[in-house]
Amino acid sequence: MTLSNVLLSILWLALITYTVLGGADFGAGMLELFAVGPSGARQDALIVDSMDPVWEANHVWLIFLLVVFFTAFPPAFADINVILFIPLMLAVIGIVLRGAAFAFKVHGIIERSQVARILSRIFSVASAMTPFFLAVAAAAIASGHIQIQSKNLQTNTGSDWLTPFALTIGAMALTLCVTIAAIYLTLEATSRGDTELAEAFRKRGLIAGALTAALGLLGLLLAPSEASFLWNGMLDHAIPLVIATVLIGLAAAAALWFKRYGWTRILIVAVAASLLLTWGVSQFPYLIPPDVQVQNAASPQNTQALLLIGIIIALLIVVPSLWFMFYVFKVKKVAGADVVAHHPTAEPAAE
Amino acid sequence: MSNLIAARVQMGNSLAFHIAFVVLAMGMPLMLCIAEGLALWHKDPVWMAIARRWSKAVAMIFIIGAVSGTVISFELGLLWPSYTQFAGSIIGPLFAFEGIFFFTEAIFLGIYLYGWDRLSPRAHWICSFPIWISGLFAAFIIVTVNSWMNTPTGFVVQNGQITGINSLQAIFNPAQPYEVVHMILASFVGIGFGVATVYAIAILRGKRDAYHRKAMLLGMVVGLVSIPLQMIAGDAIARSLETQQPVKLASMEAVYTTSNDVPLHLMGFPNVPQQSWYTQGLVIPDGLSLLVGFSPDTTVQGLNSVPANDRPGDVLIPIIHLAFDLMVLFGSFIMLVAFVFWIIFFVRRSVIPEYKWLLWSIILCGPMAFIAVECGWVVTEEGRQPWVIYNYLRTSAAVTTAPYLNFTFGVFTIIYILMTIMLIILLVRQARTPMPKMEWAEVTRVSPVEKPAV
Question: Is the ipTM of this complex over 0.90?
Answer without folding.
Answer: no
